Amino acid sequence: MRIHELTAEERAVYATLKPESLPQHVAIIMDGNGRWAGHRSLKRFLGHQQGAKSVQLVTETASRIGLPWLTLYAFSLENNLRRPRAEVNFLMRLLRSYLESNLQRMMDNNVRIRYIGRTHELPPEVQDKMAWAADATARNTGTTLTLALNYGGRSEMVDAFRALAAEIKQKHIAPERITEEDIHRHLYTAHMPDPDLLIRTSGEMRISNYLLWQIAYTELLVTERLWPDFRGIHLLEAIADFQRRERRYGGLGEGSGDVEEDADRIRLAAG
Ligand code: FPP
Q1: Which residues pair with 148 in a beta bridge?
Q2: What would the pLDDT profile of 231-260 be if each residue is shown by its tens digit?
Q3: Which site from 34, 143, 176, 204 is most exposed, i.e. has the minimal number of CB atoms within 10 Å?
Q4: 142 CB under 6 A from ligand 1?
Q5: DSSP labels, 67-81
Q6: For the CA atoms of the chain, what is the radius of gyration?
Q7: In this structure, what DSSP letter does residue 162 have?
Q8: In terms of Cα–Cα distance, which of 192, 109, 187, 101 is closest to 143?
Q9: What's the whole-number average pLDDT of the chain?
Q10: What's the whole-number mean pLDDT along residues 115-141?
Q11: Is 142 exposed, middle or buried (CB count within 10 Å of its CB: 0-12, 13-18, 19+)?
Q12: DSSP summary character for residue 230
């Protein structure tokens, strides 16, 4: 942990956190780049450019507090299919230049870069730069920054089910022996814990096909703040909010009342 590298404002929020219950994995839906630009009468691409700055600053704060996993929704399958070509091309160029110009900072912050999604469908020059950044940072041991690129939660499940079906056929496994663990093993995220906290910026109350399987018990936090205005301190504030919640995983929480095991007495009490 490199708490001393936090800004004074960040350190003040960090001081309110319980170090023993920090989340292991934070996922973020980075939304609002276009609106940020629109509010300033700027072109949308300037919003994305500013959003890339937020990516770097938030990642660095995450690495300073020792967050093991940070997973950012950078480009969805739907973005790829439904946005104008010029915007998609811009995002691809931005990703390349982002990786190139921030690699040294990633190394300085001990950040490891990885990707999830159908990345093999991205332009070859983008894939080359992605592989370059992943290889260069592969031995870093701090935060793993996973960029979801050409990612969709349903297509991830399709890919997982295809791989599982092939395994079942090859090993002659009976379908009734399939477990949740078998599905988990074939997801893009098989090597990571599920997110503890999912943050969505810019106020929309949607999941947008993000990490559908993995967020079964994830705490959700939606902030009105637009992604280009989101900074490390807002990540820390989100973690403070997360720590005030009680996670129950389908069980009972504190203050749920005593469990009554005597069925007769329950009937009596109910009249
Ligand atoms: C949503 O804004 C954001 C995206 C479509 C992509 C996220 C991209 C970045 C943060 C920048 C590049 C990332 C990296 C890793 C270099 P929007 O355009 O949907 O905003 P709007 O809903 O306000 O129009």
Answers
A1: 73, 116
A2: 999 999 999 999 999 877 888 887 777 776
A3: 176
A4: no
A5: -SEEEEEEEEHHHHH
A6: 21
A7: H
A8: 109
A9: 94
A10: 98
A11: buried
A12: -
Residue 224 has phi, psi (to 5 degrees) of: -70, -20
Place of tokens 């700027």: 42
Reported in sequence order, the residue ranges of 117-222 that DSSP labels E, i.e. its strands, are 144-151, 197-200, 219-222
Tell me which amino acid residue 251 is. G
Residue 32 and residue 201 in contact, taking contact as beta carbons nearer than 8 Å: yes
**Residue-range domain boundaries for the chain:** 3-153+194-269
How many Å from the N-terminal Cα to the C-terminal Cα in the chain? 58
Q: Which CATH class is domain 3-153+194-269?
A: alpha beta
What is the C-alpha to C-alpha distance for residues 27 and 146, in angstroms, rounded to an integer?
Answer: 9
Give catalytic residues, as residue numbers.
Answer: 31, 79
Q: Which of 232, 237, 235, 233 is nearest to 57 (CA)?
A: 232
- Give the pLDDT of residue 266: 53
The response to whether residue 186 sits with its C-beta less than 6 Å from ligand 1 reads no
State what percent of residues in the chain have pLDDT above 90: 89
Q: What are the backbone angles phi and psi of residue 197, rounded to the nearest 5°?
A: -140, 130
Chain segment 52-65, per-residue pLDDT in tens: 999 999 999 999 99
Q: Is 63 helix (H, G, I), strand (E, B) or coil?
A: helix
What is the SS3 assignment for 91? helix
Atom 24 (ligand 1) nearest CA: 34
Please tell me the distance from the alpha carbon of residue 42 to that of residue 44, in angstroms, as a whole number: 6
The count of other CB atoms within 10 Å of the CB of residue 25 is 22
Name the residue with tokens 């996922």: 27
Give the closest residue to 74 by CA, choosing from 133, 18, 24. 133
Mutate to test the pocket of ligand 1, among 28, 29, 30, 72 (most ligand atoms within 8 A of CB): 30
Q: How far apart are CA 206 and CA 218, in angstroms?
A: 14
Read off the pTM.
0.93
